Amino acid sequence: MEKINLPMASKYTSPNPVTLICTQKGDGTTNLATVSWWTYLSYNPCMIAYAMAKTSYSGEMVRQNKKVVLTIPGEEIAKEVLNCGSTSGRNTDKVKEFGIKMQSLANCDIDIPLHSRVAIVCDLKEYVEVGDHYLYICNVKDVYGDKNEKALFAFNGYSQIKSIKE
Ligand SMILES: Cc1cc2nc3c(=O)[nH]c(=O)nc-3n(C[C@H](O)[C@H](O)[C@H](O)COP(=O)(O)O)c2cc1C
Fold first, then answer.
1. In this structure, are residues 50 and 33 in contact, taking their beta carbons and an 8 Å threshold?
2. Structural element, H or E, at residue 56
3. Residues 54-92: pLDDT tens digits?
4. What would the pLDDT profile of 39-56 be if each residue is shown by its tens digit?
């Protein structure tokens, strides 16, 4: 084996997961940010976690509201998901700018993209400083799924987003 670094390792592990972190902005609308660094943590109780750069607007919103929905976006919105990963909600209304169709969920204030394969509705339990990121550890409240939507994955590190053909 040759010695590589961690960013290179994330290219070697492609395809990597793709999620949209859905948080609520002050005006009640949703901010969407693309995140690959997430994981299941526990089934009893149900918990997940994801890591986001300290500077992210999504982080600011979840630390403030303590609520977040993690979705697995469907293949129809692959291009939009890439765009959500290169712009910040701090200065862009991504849902409007990229024309992303949304849907509401029962007992949840945060709208999510219509094209979603999975939605995991969470309360923020705590967040931990991990280098240049925060790790957000969440309690899962509700989970929804739609098997007709095809999951997206990130290829070549994080530079391309597409579904996987079986
Ligand atoms: C495929 C892909 C995966 C990404 N994964 C992460 C991630 O795991 N953690 C992170 O902090 N940013 C990740 N990003 C970058 C964020 O989506 C980006 O910084 C975004 O602008 C943050 O938006 P916000 O400021 O509205 O929260 C990823 C981007 C792409 C395209």
1. no
2. none
3. 999 999 999 999 999 999 999 999 999 999 999 999 999
4. 999 999 999 999 999 999
What range does the domain containing 128 cover?
Answer: 6-163
Q: Residue 49 to residues 22, 52, 63, 109: CA-CA distances in angstroms?
A: 14, 10, 14, 20
- What's the structural domain count of the chain? 1
CB of 82 closer than 6 angstroms to any ligand 1 atom: yes
Domain contains 35: yes
The CATH number of whichever domain residue 37 belongs to comes to 2.30.110.10
Q: What percent of the chain has pLDDT over 70?
A: 100
Q: In what order do the strands lie in the sheet with 19-24?
A: 30-35, 19-24, 67-73, 116-130, 133-145, 46-53, 38-43
158 lines ligand 1 (CB under 6 A): yes
- For ligand 1, whether the C-beta of 24 sits within 6 Å is no
Tell me the whole-structure pTM to 2 decimals: 0.97
Q: Is 127 in the pocket of ligand 1 (CB under 6 A)?
A: no
Judge whether 1 lies within some domain.
Answer: no
Ligand 1 closest atom vs CA 16:
1
112 close to ligand 1 (CB < 6 Angstrom): no
Please give the distance, rounded to the nearest whole angstrom, from the Cα atom of residue 85 to the centre of ligand 1: 5
